[in-house]
Fold these 3 entries.
Entry 1:
Amino acid sequence: MSETSVDAAEVAKFEAMAAEWWDPSGKFKPLHEMNPCRLHYITSQIAAEFERNIAEAQPFAGLRILDIGCGGGLLSEPMARLGAEVVGADAAPKNIPVAQIHAEQSGLAIDYRNTTAEALAEAGERFDVVLNMEVVEHVADPAAYLQACHDLLRPGGLMICSTLNRNAKSFAMAIVGAEWVMRWLPKGTHDWQKFITPDELFDLIRRAGLEPLDRKGMVFNPLAWSWSLSDRDLSVNYVTASRRPG
Amino acid sequence: MDNPAQLPILPPMTTDCDVIILGGGLNGPPLALALAQAGLSVTVIDALPQAIRADDAFDGRAYALALASQRLLAAVGVWPAVAAKAQPILGVRASDGRVGEGPSPFFLDFANGELEEGPMGFMLEDRHLRQAFLAAMGTTPGITQISGDTVVAQETGPGGITVTLASGRTLSARLLAGCDGRASGTARRAGISRSGWGYGQTALVCAIAHEKPHEGIAQQFFTPAGPLAILPLTGNRSAIVWSEREETARAIQALDDEGYLAALRERVGDYLGTLRLEGKRFTYPLNLTLANSFVAERVALVGDAAHGVHPIAGQGLNLGLRDVGALAEVVIEAQRIGEDIGALDVLERYQRWRRFDSTALALGMDTVNRLFSNDNPLLRAARDIGMGTVNAFPGLRRRFIREAAGLTGDLPKLLQGRAI
């Protein structure tokens, strides 16, 4: 879709959708609440792998980062703000102009595309970092998808991948709790059968030719009403880092 | 669809700076220093010309800096410039007194040795603190100062906030920090309402020179009309903060210097020998004012703009510096993970951190004032016994001292003397 094909009414609609995506107490509230925790993990892993100092201005300058399933740009924008050259990819066409409008309002240059990891890999695109956050549990063929993620990385490149564990607790928390009771997410957002245990994910990652580096749990504390990283508790949400050798 | 676009490596600057700070008094400058030292670009706007703010004459105003506040000044690099001009507070004595009767036999007596971190605080003259702030801001890269101009309008947009100055100039930033005092225009323009009430009391403030040394001891007398604090300055000088009922204060302020000193002598007693006035005499009507929110989209309120408290125990400045430490930490951490520093969910972290603490303290000070500004004989007996009790138990005493030194609660890193 090119910008010239979008009429004024469409733009107004997309602006409203962008405002909705970025409203911290709106429809995407759970994602906003989790975002600082995800960003802490992503930025510290990238800084460690590429020897960047996050206390400096534009620490990720010179890095090319792909955000798969970028939605409204909740991860793409922070990466661009830290100086990276960012491509945001989303399979849902309506998300692209929404994310574009918000990036423009924020004064950020981000290359949003309506495409998939597989299509980008096939086109020969290469990145220093691939952000693969809460996507793998939604794809039809995780092995083929992770192979595409591998192909998208330059040798020495970093993949950050988060997903949901599959056990009784994750069923209670992510399906019963988040979808049925709290209504944080629409019913049917997740198919528990497709959740992956950390060991299964590391196995898939290795088979795709990547080298697992780290894994941490992301734990919600209802008293502090905030998310934090955990070395031990990977029972529901967890995040991993792996590297393409070379 | 596949267009490896010619993206610039650095995103375009769409705002003039990262943060605009309105108010160059006691909270704006340390906030500017902390943010600029972390690499943010900051513009500080103050209504007064620099020459007036840097005036070297002692006007009688001084502050009791808690130990934690001193650490913040050290962390932002201002402490070395004022250290030699600060008087360490080596002890605090609080007692219940009535005009003509002197202090009651029961009193709280805190000595310095009871706190392992050092003196529980310092007395610092307003002029020295202001001069040090201005000098540090002038030599810190990333800080732009606009003096002698005021903000007449502010507008929040999706990517930033724009302020219009009286001079006609406009400036934009990702975040506007309102350090503009208890009548905060930043809060009013953001649509943040306030709650508060007066006490029917006025604080008389001045500095005195005296014959005998104060030994570094801060004295607080609770008189029926209100508290009277005698706080040690360098040399044989002390700062006086003296609360009286409105009409009494007006009458005392109207006296000539001799009459004023006579009224003061009657309350202080003669432990300091002969007294002489130094600098000007000030009056401040006492009232409590709390902003109903400390933040709005792209706006954060700091210090008196968020919570103007009763000046008992000099907690106003110390509370403000806690705000400075917390806001700087929240903003710098958000910046380092790529978040939009003016986004409401980022600023709400600052509000969650500071609001309970400062509101509790504001209301606590209010309760102390109401309890002590009273001549009911039963209440008087109760508080004498209460003070004697606190004094007798080391655990309770320690809590009081640590509280006064500002070392309790969830301390921002800067107030622990640590870098963010």
Note: Chain B is about 35% helix and 30% strand.
Entry 2:
Amino acid sequence: MKRQSFDEHLEHLHRTLLSMATLVEENIIKSVKSLVDQNVVLAGHVIKQDEVINALELEIELGCFRTIALQQPVGSDLRKIGTMLKISADLERMGDYATSIAKTTIRLKDKPYMKPLIDIPQMATIVKEMVRDALNAYIAGNQEDAITIAQRDDEVDKLYTIIFDDLIRAMSNSANIHQGSHLLLVSQYLERIADHVTNICEWIVYMKTGEIKSLNL
Amino acid sequence: MQSFSFRLNTIIISIMALILFLVGFYVAGLMEKVYVDTLANRLTREANIIATSIDTHKDIKAFAPNEIQRLVNRFSESGNSRITIVDLDGTVLADSEASANRMDNHLDRPEIREALSNGRGQSLRFSHTLNTDMIYVAHVIGFSEGHPRGIVRLGLSIVNINEFIHNLWYSLALGMGAALLLTVIVSLLVSRHITRPIVEITSVARKITQKKFDSRVHHPGVGEIGQLAYALNFMASSLESQMKEIKENEEKLSGVLNNMVSGVILIGESRRILLLNSAIEEFLGHSEKALIGKLHIEAGLNFGLSQLIDHCFQTGEKIRDEVHIYYPQEKIVDANLAPYTTDHGEVKGVVVVLHDITAIRRLEKMRSEFVANVSHELKTPITSIKGFAETLLDGAMEDKEILRQFLEIIHSESERLHRLINDILDLSKIEKRLPHQLSVVDIGELINVIYHNLEAKISKKHINFIVPAIRSLTIEGDRDRLHQIIVNLIDNAISYTPEQGTIKVDLVDLGESIQLSVKDNGIGIPKAEIHRIFERFYRVDKGRARNSGGTGLGLAIVKHLVESHHGTIKVESEEGNGSTFTLTLPKAQP
């Protein structure tokens, strides 16, 4: 009887975490889309959805603590709950970065870009694939996948360096400094999101093996 | 567990064996008793006769020993029993088989003692004198008159009796053994007859659980077991037909589901996917098999859709909404959710139907953009006509020079308006796909005609125009439409080529089709925008094109016309180095 209720708790937490994760994923995609299309309405939507993400994180944290307190899980069950706690914290930070990107859209809405954005959407594509794959690895509990996903962080870092150099070069023209510095921040946000995905992958490995392994090499 | 037939056999055989054993014992005991009794009776009778005959002769004391011995010998000759005469003290007076004076006193013999008190006695024992089992019967002479004078004792060896009883036992045992054997055979046959249908029924029932619904009991047996077998056969055939029906229904359902363009998902109470069709793969990017049994949030990884599903579970109401799917491709989806409920109104599951409305939304967007573009294009000449006319009315018309200049502008703007409206009407006509008026057209000659029509414009810009080497090449098509295609392409080339540029028109015979290319060395088209040049109102260089008098619809019209002639058009261009439009048209129209 008690066991069944514990499994129900765990499944409910799992569902909530996945809801939060998909919302974060969508917000990342939408924020980059809003930036590329200079779509302020979409950006506003992202900023509003971040409140839902924060509420979901709170719900997951409280749920995890309640489950730990009432059911006193041990072993792999405890690891599962711990992993959920950590992943929800990472997701919340990722959501915040999406919000920051959306805010950048609003700040840059008045002027067309100095040139069409190409590298940033490309970076965003890799990042959102990493997010999606990490979610699937979490669902499947597949630590091998988690390790390969974390390795893609290198691609993101490379693109970040390229974008950084490009923007610095563009900013030698003082007219581009305002736009350039904001876009620089956006690429940094995306890079940070990828780092959080790496963290999530580490927690997936922990959940399955009980070992804490650094994947951010 | 032992089999039913084994238990049945064991029970029948052991009961039979017990009965036969008891009956045998009883019968053997009875026979032995009856035999011994008969023997004893005979001996008693004989003893009585001997006693009476001795008594009637004379008093026993009066006999001489020899005389009595003779008498005894005489009696014993007529029977096969041993005769002994004893006086009341137990002294043996005569014996038929032993010497009387050598025998012991017989007073302690049980039959004699019994006879002394009762008149007669009987005993069955081992005789040491004769070394054999004997039956003895003693009778007192003169006991009935109250003056006992002596005792007559008859003895008979029961070796014969024992033999007889042994024979009896043997024959009884033999008969019982035969009866038992018969019982075993009958019981085996009966039990097999009973259990065979049961065994068959069991195996059929097992086969049915293994979904072999075509198995039947072929030897149903009789009675209750037969009825059971018939009931099982009936059940099997009804199951078979029901399964067939279910299978057919399933096939129908999966046929309908899998041929649907819309995606269908059925989600059960546990929020896990129970059923989906193959179309869903395009929406969610996973194969059908990978998704079944997953939580809907795991499968879709779409917040909006999952929220709708959860909402539908909570409220039990039908929901229709638009959902954006971002993965694997960005899609706009029209989601219809309906709960299916039990009789008590409990939500047991949710059916989700997804329609891909991305294309519809894009078309809607294009249409509204088109309307906006048309209005914008129309607005520009009208604004200038209105402005110049108002200026003239405000007094400028008094100045002849200005009046003329303004009227010329108004004229050219209305010309442009006219062209624009004609192009829009053309385009809508072409888009309606009105049938072509097909005839044999000489493309070479057509190019020549067009060149002469445009000669003024070409020489004005000092353009070096190179006509194709092939002067005559005929294809099937609508002459007016082909004229429009070529005019639009060459006119475009003239517009986008700077003064003293070169335009080269080339014609190639490809056998089944022809290839016409128009190459200029004008401003070219940026790579990123090359795919957009056939869009209506699209202009590479917004300012210049409007000055050159284009409507922005020319290439859109060309593309439609080429496609309606079953041809293709492609563009190669490099920014600043000019563009080449190449069209391929079939020689014969289907």
Note: Residues 108 and 179 of chain A are 7 Å apart (CA to CA).
Entry 3:
Amino acid sequence: MAEIWRPIRKILREPLGALGLFLVVLVIFGAVFADFLTSYDPTRINPRDRFQGPSAEHLMGTDQLGRDLFARVLHGGRIALFVALVSTAASLAIGIVLGLIAGYGPRWLDNLLILLFDAMKSFPTVMLALALVTIMGPSLTAVMVVVILVTVPGYARIIRTQTIALKNSEYVTAAQSMGASPARILRVHILPNVIGPLVILASMDIPVVIGIEAGMSFLGLGVRPPTPSWGSMLNDGFTSIRDTAWIAIAGGVPIILTTLGFTFLGETLRDVFDPRLKGR
Amino acid sequence: MLSYFFKRLGLAAVIVSVAMFILFCMIYLIPGDPAAVALGPRATPEMRDALREAMGLNQPIPVQFWNFYSSAWMGDLGTEVLSGRPVLTVVLEQLPFTLALIAGGITWSVALGIPLGCWAAVSRGSWADRIVGILSVAVIAVPSFVIAIYALLIFAVQLRWLPAIGAGEPGNLGDQLTHLVLPSLAVGLGWVGYIARMVRASMLEVLEASHIRTARAFGLPDRMITYRYALSIAILPTVTLLGVGIGQMLSSAVFAEIVFARPGVGKLVYDAILTRNFPVVSGTVLVTTVLFVLLNLLADLTIGALDPRVRSNF
Amino acid sequence: MTTLGIDGLNVTFSTEDGPLHALKNVTFDVPENRIVGIVGESGCGKSTLINAILGLLADNGHIDSGSILFQGQDDLTTLSPSKMRDLRGPRISTVFQDPMGALNPVISVGKQMMNIQYRSGLSKEQKAQRAIEMLELVRIPDARAALARYPHQFSGGMKQRIAIAMALMMEPALLIADEPTTALDATLEVTTIELLKDLQAQIGCSVMFISHHLGVIAELCDDVVVMYAGEVVERGTTRQIFNDPRHPYTARLLECDPARQSERTRNLPTIPGEIPDLRARPPGCIFANRCHRVRDACSAPPPDTDIGDGHFARCIVAETPEPAQVTA
């Protein structure tokens, strides 16, 4: 138990870290217990109650179709966190594999992969997303594919650099001379050394991922209606911005709080556990 | 200098080629028929076959790629589905609006970011430093389209200080500039944070350098040391940073153009998706990618022009 | 008249682990028109001493007591920052150790030399002319063209000569040279030393020359100050220090100088032990834990023993000279 508490106490000692942790816990809590926190169905249309401001009945008001905004915010958090978690995990897995291959494999493969990573990075994110969605059609899967394409090159590059540095270190050479297979060297000697900083960097990318999901849903290229997403709520708010500001506020504030929460938490994690990464 | 330039140009060409290959793979190899996508759900199979033939989709894939690749280098990005105009012309018509938006974003980020970063570094550890630090992180974290919408909501809809839609009257520079203020703020605000952090960090590093100690030992005034001796070195990395940042600003520009209903490549590609104007989408992606790679190259060359140490290494 | 009179100077740094007593009771003079060498290992407080004189101590550094009298009038420990800034450059100038980093890399040499003269009230042409004169004096070829060039376009030796030209341009009363030749190779070192000696005679300033290279000190300096762990353990004329060292540390330091080894040996002699932690100074003699002549009385603070003719050593056995040969 003490093992878990020590890092948390370290984070709480930093005011920004504490704020970040609070916001993240708040968002997760809201998403997990959405069904207990509100009795409204986030997709239920109720034209008689449209464009209402906040009240005791509708905590954040209602949108242009009379749906309860508070319920939509909570359920939208589920989508955002789901995308963030699943696609970041997938990116990490793919990035680690590609990075290890580039760093440990033959030279030509390394050069080829680096070229691919650079080319991927040369697409502006939104352009890539737009091109993909044109082909795949708007869906949650498309969002996750975009996230993976955007974040994998960065992770793979870091893993590659670290792997090359470790490949030439003495203990890896020693393991090689004792006949350890490449797979074993990667798993036992290299992976444990590179995974820590990578996880911190990935946690700092979560706001970016949440931004991509919300952004694509805002453009109508992500989550399909009527599924609630913060991005599509923001679009609803944008469309009716001259009628009411409440929808835009309900859609935007959760995005702001979540991205800020994860960023403050990620920055604190980095400063506390891996100051070497500070320059990034 | 020249050999360095050509080496960088060659590398840029290779990267663009690979990007084109990836784009090609995405378009043609991912399940889904481009002809069907282009024609929409109501097209008959005969119409699809005719279009497939016209688009050269019945040829072997390597041939298709070569056609795509070679004609793209010649500037032929296909024709627009509706009007039949060349895609390149259509994109280049819209490009100046987007470039103006990005230039505006860079102006905001440099004009606010460099002084803030410098101030934070000089007053290191003070409350001003902390506030600048927190604000920098905050504006980096919040997605640009949220900033765009809130800027629209606050300054255009509620306060009515600035216009909400369009790019302004053609030929009326003042009007165009007032229309540029909010969208370019949305594009550049995040970069205010990046640049402030970067300038602060490099400023702190430079202030520790021994030539700054020399300058102090010669009794030069603090202002001269801070701005002419330290800042002139500390801002060099921002040029590289901006080069990389242009890709992100292009992304932000897409949102800003949609939110503020401005013309530009972002609006162009978004409308093209809604109307299934497929060649415009791939053409715009390609043009913006080339633009991004070229601007990166430009940033590297600018560093050379600004930094005498790099200049003589060319 | 003495150019610089340092008397009972104490400097501490506040660190996370408590106060660090970096300079303790430092007393010595830099007389007019003389070159005073400061010798000591790294960490002996040379840099702190320079920074204290220049008023450039780090924020956590503090002068507790003592005075630094410049030309008999201004006490540099109490001078206002702006008055201090007016002295730096025109009256007290400095040449630093690292010629590679001492000049600003993105400002041309000429511009830097003209910036230094910002208080002179000269016209732009006059400032440039003065810069060219100085560059010619330190034998930079094609001085006029050199003004437009950047530091990285010069070799290390030339950069150090430019730094010397900059330091002497305003004809200061005191030049502080902080290991100016350490980063240079041997031949360059000799020419730079000679140049410095020439210029000193020409301009007639006092020089405080910091080095750990005993040969250079013996060659160049009139007086020598030996520092150890933030204290002046011995001071006197060059002849007194080199021929008749009275502090055991000075004696061991001279023995350890590779240039003085008469025979080939496999192992260069070293002084065993380490400099004590300056956060917890011993109450007695600072060198006692490494001293070969240590005795019980060394646990009390040693006095500055006056050996005569301006020769002082902070040691209780200083009145008797070092035994001829120490068996290690």
Note: The first helix of chain B runs from residue 2 to 29.
